Amino acid sequence: MVGLLGPNGSGKTTLLHALLGLVPLAGGEIRLWGRDIHRLTARERARRAALVPQGTGPAFPYPAAEVVLMGRYPHLRPWRGYTERDAAAARSAMDRAGVAPLAERPVTELSGGERQGVLVARSLAQEAPLLLLDEAVSAMDIHRKIELFDLFAEMNRREGATVVAVLHDLNLAALYCRRIVFLRHGRVHADGAAGEVLTPGVIEAVYGTRVLVETHPVTGRPVVCFIPGGSRGTGG
Ligand SMILES: Nc1ncnc2c1ncn2[C@@H]1O[C@H](COP(=O)(O)OP(=O)(O)OP(=O)(O)O)[C@@H](O)[C@H]1O
């Protein structure tokens, strides 16, 4: 479970897109389970990696259940429609993501946080072992954030899923991500265990804001405390 952190424009989304083979590489190569990503078909990639994109999802008023079912696309056999197995996977994904009551609602009529829940459910329906989350819970209330990150952590622990989560919420990352990678200007600035890299020095260098780092009274993990005025005079 990896947290991918860094300022606006530092390259987090670009890196997720690169991991999915959606952008050409300037150099090097990316392998998923030993296979060069650019030698896999779109279908093969989608069976391995699911993305919860930043943003609000489809602009058309599809019912939420239909959007979730779209996650089954890489599993469809040519010229065949969705099977009962696909419908069951979509229902289970909606249950797990806590959006089953929204099934019949047009996604364009949902709130921002509700829509994000539907996109999470779509990625779960995809049943890919690599889950790429791009600010997937940013519009959700704290109850939903904790509920979904508990789910991702359980998928990571019990089901062997790899989760790469782009986050602006440093404390959510501190609570759930074993490894944290900080990007800055398109390069890795720090990469290590949460306790090693969530330090005032690293955070100030990456974001240009002063912080205090304390210890979480329950989990023992780092807690980042922000300071009003902390961004003043630090250069950004
Ligand atoms: N399609 C594109 N064409 C050209 N430049 C792009 C494109 N998409 C992103 N960029 C640029 O690449 C840089 C990295 O963008 P990216 O979306 O990866 O940042 P990010 O770290 O995800 O930022 P944020 O936290 O704001 O979501 C930015 O400077 C951005 O303007």
TrEMBL record:
Transmembrane segments: none annotated. Gene3D superfamilies: P-loop containing nucleotide triphosphate hydrolases (3.40.50.300). SUPFAM superfamilies: P-loop containing nucleoside triphosphate hydrolases (SSF52540). One of its GO terms (molecular function) is ATP binding. The keyword Transport applies. It comes from the Bacteria. Signal peptide: none annotated. The keyword Cell inner membrane does not apply. Residues 2-210 form the ABC transporter domain. InterPro entries: AAA+_ATPase, ABC_transporter-like_ATP-bd, P-loop_NTPase. Keywords: ATP-binding, Nucleotide-binding, Translocase, Transport. This is ABC transporter ATP-binding protein. It comes from Dissulfurirhabdus thermomarina. The lineage of its organism: Bacteria, Deltaproteobacteria, Dissulfurirhabdaceae, Dissulfurirhabdus.
